[in-house]
Amino acid sequence: MSTELTAWDKVQIARHGRRPHTLDYIRACCEEFVEFHGDRRFGDDPAMVAGVARLDGRTVAVIGHQKGSDTRENLRRNFGMPRPEGYRKALRLFRHAERFGFPVVCFIDTPGADPSMQSEERGQAEAIAENILVMAGLRVPIVATVIGEGGSGGALAIGVADRLLMLEYTTYSVASPEATAAILWHDSARAPEAAQVMRITAPDLLDLGVADAIIAEPEGGAHLDPTAALLNTAAAVRHHVAELAGVPIDVLLARRYAKYRAIGQTQQHPPPPVEPREVPALSFG
Amino acid sequence: MKELFRRTPGRFTSARRDADQQIPENLWTKCPACGEITYVRQLNDQLKVCKCGHHMRLSVAEWLQLFDRESFVEEDRDLAPVDALQFVSAKDNYAQKLRETQAATGMNDALLTGRATLDGAAVQLAISNWEFIGGSMGSVFGERLARATERAAERGVPLITITATGGARQHEGVLSLMQMAKTNMALTRLSAARQLHIALLVDPCYAGVLASYASVADVIIAEPGARIGFAGRRVIEQTIRQKLPASFQTAEFLLEHGMVDMVTPRGELRATIRRLIGLHAPAAAQLSPSDAGVLREPLRLS
User: Fold this and answer.
1) β-strands A142-151, A104-110: how paired?
2) B291 pLDDT exceeds 80?
3) Which residue of B has its CA nearest to A122?
4) B57-286: which CATH topology?
5) Domains and CATH numbers, chain A
6) B288 confidence band (pLDDT: 50, 70, 90)
7) Phi and psi (nearest 5°) for B162?
């Protein structure tokens, strides 16, 4: 079945409104969930949920983008597009987890960070950059799972992890296919084509060395049998958290460093020779 | 009569700049902000800053002159990009675009890295090239910056980044996105080595690059009038369905909202960076050759 689906088909499945969302996964994986609110700076962002819970008897910090399952909730949740205060709430939880030695469990499901004037004013770029930096050196294990759309820096801001898991029909990309089509071809209607060339599906990411494992979904997608998807995911998250919890933290950090340092593809060859251009002399004093 | 109104391409265009034109095109430049026409040599004396205050874009070679003459040694020059996604569409062929851009710029990719000195102080530097696919960050950009950052940490010198960029490079897909993690990962080493990262944001500086290394620098300097932001102006205008004020996402706007430390005119950059490096140098190393004479006397008193 999955071999017949195009990348654009998978984008539709990943965005399906009946798919389970972060709070469903938290309830499926964990017990005693207590949700935290607010970034202690500006406000509380319903597009990001965060708190602490018990997973296999171990306390973990759980963080995830939260979409709604109907229009009303989606409006409240800003369609899962966090504002800076959402990322800063996540940041609070990262630091909290580090202080108490809790592993961090993240669920990724966003079209991207909120693009609005207010978010720009409050430093959307800084909020994302700071989270990436803090996750890079966070002294507790991090397991992130893409449960729907992984869109851009807005996803990566809770996605730097020792293990990145992806559900079978999810996507993760540098920008949404619509945005890529708009950036490259000034035509967001060509999103299906962008989806195809961008290599954004779970098998693509495994192949590119970005994802570490794929979690099987029920035939046709998680929305057709949410319980099965939740159970599979819970088992995978528990497995990886347990595995990482046994690794000394300095070993884990060295591995995390090596993992991200290795992502990317380059080769060695000299640049082509060009006619030297005349450079005007500038005196900076 | 009809002939009179027929447009003959290229015949009546007023502003054509051909080689056979009387005035060589490199003699005068028109400011894109105020329209004032300035003698190029005078403009160069003003560091390409128009009388109206508009800071014109500098090339990578021009930015290098911010550092000591002939002090720059390029590193990782032969590191070259790969078309990992085999990105070909009806309008775009990445491999071909790379070849063309490399031939035009003489660079393998959009970031120039290496070591240099600034008034004798050793620094590691990274300058993005806007002419290379909009200064976009792909695998080579990320790798070069990560190596430069690690070298700065190992050598115990500050890192200076000069960035004009549209963001992550679409043609390398999620690999480009992951360079945001890679560059910030390397910055943890710089931080552990207690070395300074100064980021200079120049026009324009956007998206994935602003949302990674450029925003977590110890000191962030922006050029006057530079447009800086996460989401593109057009995207926001489409979302809110209204025009944004002209001041939105300018360097001054970011200063007002606490996102940059200072907006520094080009003529004051060198002195500002020099002072910052000096203030952060370990006490024993603060005697640079030119300062040593000045400080010798008070030291003798003690």
Assistant:
1) parallel
2) no
3) B257
4) 2-enoyl-CoA Hydratase; Chain A, domain 1 (3.90.226)
5) 7-262 (3.90.226.10)
6) low
7) -120, 115
